[in-house]
Amino acid sequence: MKDISDKSRTWTAAALVLVCLAVIGCATAYTLRVLHLMRSDTDQYLLENAKNAVLTVTSRVEEDFYNLNLAAETCANLPDRENRLTHLRNLAGGQTLDKLALAEPDGTLYLTNGNSFSMAGNSIVEQALQGSEVLEISPEFSLENQTEYLVYAVPIVGHDNSILGALIWRDTQRFVTRWFPQNQSDRITIVESDGSIILSEQCGENVFDLLSRTVPERDCSLDQLRSDLSEGRQGIFYYHNTVEEAAITYFPLPFGNWFLLLRTPLESMNRSLSQAMLLGILLCFLLGAAFLLFLYFFLRAQQRHTQLLEQLAFSDPVTGGDNALRFSMRVEKILPEAPPASYVLVSADIQAFGLVNRIFGESAGDRVLSHLCRSFQDRLQPGELVARDTQDQFLLLLHADLPAALEARLEEMARHVNRFNEHTPTPYYLHLTIGLCLVNDPSHPLSDLLDQANLARKRARQHSTDKLSTCAWYRPEDQEQRLREQNICNQMERALENGDFKIYLQPKFSLAGRRVVGAEALVRWQDGEQAFFRPDSFIPYFERNGFITRLDRYMFEQSCIQLRQWLDAGLKPVPISVNFSRANLAVGTLAAYQAIQERYGVPPSLLEFELTETMMGENPTFFSEVVEAMHQMGFQCSIDDFGSGYSTLYMLQQVQVDTIKLDKSLFDGLRSQPECPRTAIVVEAVLQLARRLGLKTVAEGISTQEQLEFLKHYPCDMVQGYYFSHPLPAEEFCRRFLRPADAPPEVEAP
């Protein structure tokens, strides 16, 4: 019995040993698998975190270049260096700082504090003066105890594409402390591909030298790190030393030959891994019960780890709420299950949010964004969402309602946002610009819906209101307008090169003799495939994108060509008036026009610039100087659309023009019997005043016999309109109205 009992215990012990070994094997295999998955999740989190940091750097660099180019564009419109330096001082808030500098074409660098020195031959200055944007680290721009600067440089380009100089911005702050929160700046390092640290507290050292004092982990090596940096690859380098265990995630930047290195302490993560391993060991020794207990805690640790990674991946670091990725994922779950037209996608931002950052600082701006997110969340209903997208833009998914009701709800949200002003002696209101898009088709791609909401928000910026929110709903015309403008933008350069912009001439007749005494040059866009584009379909867009300056100059040159052809053909030419847009008021513009006139040898007295009344009414003193410069070159000058906007006696007193063109709206009143007597008094007064001032007058838009008969009784010199002739191609105008130069003069009718 004893032997049997001993044998039984032996077999039992052997069975228990086998079970224990099986449990240990299974537990160990499972533990290693889960540890591998957790490490993979950690790798993914570290790479995503570094990628977000790179996106932040790229966004800030693009924003810096945008602001610098905006300042350069303003400088290009200023007449000389002193005005540009004054503008740069104003940008610096009136302080004599040396962060902004102006480089002249000869390489001389002028600081806003009054100092100047030669930087001729400096690669940054030379590249900017050749028309390139530059972002480099340069010790040559160092002052006092600074050892290096992050230097931005952009060219100052004139409207004739000449380089007037360059705008230099030397960032005297640390790269990472300005672009990242304080709790991240000590973990960010910028290096070159050879490992040289260029932006950090340890500038001048080499990252490979620093890491050579550490012990690599997880199959990492300095050779692999060196290879990845030299070949532009991303990756993670795990290490430990006597101070800490950490990981360095490296990610290439899209400018320069730079890498962003993000150091992440692994103490908390390694603690989770160590606990999991300890529980696995305990499980192996405690067998069944301990194994189940281990699984419980291990799964719980894994869940917490996953929740931490999810929070880092889907939480907005500024507001603490959802980020755009989480918003998109949730919307793509909600919309397919929702009936059509049951939700509205909203895009909202703060008007002039840049002023908040500029006046109160970026930390205050972040607090404003966090407050805005909480205020939106307070007013959400079940099933609705909110998230911050980029900068101050927020996305909301709201239940659909009548447009007026939904706009009222958004206005109430805006009032809730501004409740902090209720007990503030000096309130600062946050006005919201909001675009709304009704989700008629839940299967429509979310990216398209966001584009539509953003288009509506941009249109809302054009409206003015006394409310705290300005709303606009998406319309199909918004997308059509966007496509039309893009189509025009794609074709305008080619059209100008191919000569698709045609000059049409509308004659001006003397009121007394009914003979042609002048012409106005009007542009027509003739596409070989699509016939004509109407001027009102492309001129406003050209005025917004600046292409109008090139078109104006092209039309001026076409006018000079026509005059030259008439003179060479022995015809008696008539003066041609051309439009002169506001965008042409840049340094050197008039000189370029004079060069064109001299190239074709056309008498300047045959050319007249037309400036709109509203443009001249903005600053009569300045435009008086412009008109005087035109006169000194021999050109004539007229006020176009007089009487359509802000005509003042002060403007006529200040601006010494040669001609005023009375807008057609003045004569439209002659068609209405109730308005006719008052219109007659106004027109007569303007014509008499012009005659007393020695100004020629042109009546525009004359289209009826009644208007013409009315003008016969008043001192109007010329008339222009469809009653006499539509705008004509230059060849037809020449054939119908021009006479040989040696022909006897026409006798004017009484």
- Overall structural domain count: 4
Uncertain segments are 1-6
- Percentage of residues in strands: 15-25%
* Structural class by secondary-structure content: alpha+beta
CATH architecture of the largest domain: Alpha-Beta Barrel
Tell me the overall shape: elongated
Helix count, per DSSP? 24
Main beta sheet: 8 strands, mixed, barrel
| Average pLDDT metric | 81
Task: Describe the secondary-structure layout.
Layout: H1 2-76, H2 81-91, E1 100-103, E2 108-111, E3 116-118, H3 123-129, E4 134-138, E5 149-157, E6 163-171, H4 175-179, H5 182-185, E7 188-192, E8 197-199, H6 207-211, E9 215-217, H7 222-230, E10 235-240, E11 245-252, E12 258-265, H8 267-314, H9 324-334, E13 343-350, H10 353-360, H11 362-378, E14 385-388, E15 394-399, H12 403-417, E16 432-438, H13 446-460, E17 469-473, H14 476-498, E18 501-510, E19 516-527, E20 531-533, H15 535-545, H16 548-568, E21 576-579, H17 589-600, E22 607-612, H18 613-618, H19 620-632, E23 636-642, H20 649-654, E24 659-662, H21 664-668, H22 676-692, E25 696-699, H23 705-711, E26 718-719, E27 728-729, H24 730-737
Helix pairs in contact: 1-2, 1-8, 10-11, 16-17
